[in-house]
Amino acid sequence: MRQKLRLVAVLLAISCVSAWFFLGANRGWTRSSETRMEKDPVTEIEFPIVKKRFSPGVELLAGGLFVAAGLAAASMFVRSKPN
Q: In sequence order, what are the residues at sequence separation of 6 or more whose Cβ sits closer than 8 angstroms to the Cβ of residue 83?
């Protein structure tokens, strides 16, 4: 049981970090849209374009790592079965 909890904790930590990295690695709060400026080709006036894009922030990364650390800590208190 101890090894399973530690394995789940490591897999959770790796998946949280990789998901955060590959979905945008936003070092701020989580965002559900992205705003960028585009220039009109005729009048050359800049205007904002809002695009729906999920980019996870550090609070989701920290939450996932906190849960993984909790599982790893819980594995310390589980008794191993005698052989």
A: none
